[in-house]
Amino acid sequence: MPLPEPAPRQPMHTRRVTYQGFLREDGLWEIEGELHDSKPHDFDIHGTVRPANEPFHHMRIRVSFDEAMVIHAVAVAMDAFPHAPCPDAMPNLQRMVGEVLGRGWRHTIQRHLGDIQGCTHLRELLFNLATAAFQTRSGAFAPNADGRPPAHLGQCVGWDFNGPVVERVYPMFFRWQPPAKPRSTA
User: Fold this and answer.
1) Domain check: are 177 and 156 in the same one?
2) pTM of the predicted model, to two decimals?
């Protein structure tokens, strides 16, 4: 289904973001993310003229993780950046080693790399990296050994516990309800 026909317009900016997932020979998984910003015309960014189509942000990240989604290693590269201090954010990404690609991922990123501790663009790459990791890891769609549903169920309209996809693909979780949380007696 295409988008509606746009109003007359002129291209001003292009951002490309890609992710690739890999299974390593040693059993670890890796996701490589890349962000590339450019403009279709020459432009001045704080006194430096950038030629048309030349990236002013070109950043890459590689995150290695295990079956439990625990991060083992992080590698970062900044091939293009607008300000001299930008690469100072790269060492802080090592704070993500030992963290889990799962629930609360954005809060984890903010805790370790928020504000001036990190780089806006590297944080943006990390935000969606967890989804790419989930899609890459083959066992991510299997029910948990403890009988809980896979983490993606109940997280979007397509995976609604009461919907036709869950009824067909995961009939054991059709109309599933999370266990009631114990009430505090304090």
Assistant:
1) yes
2) 0.82
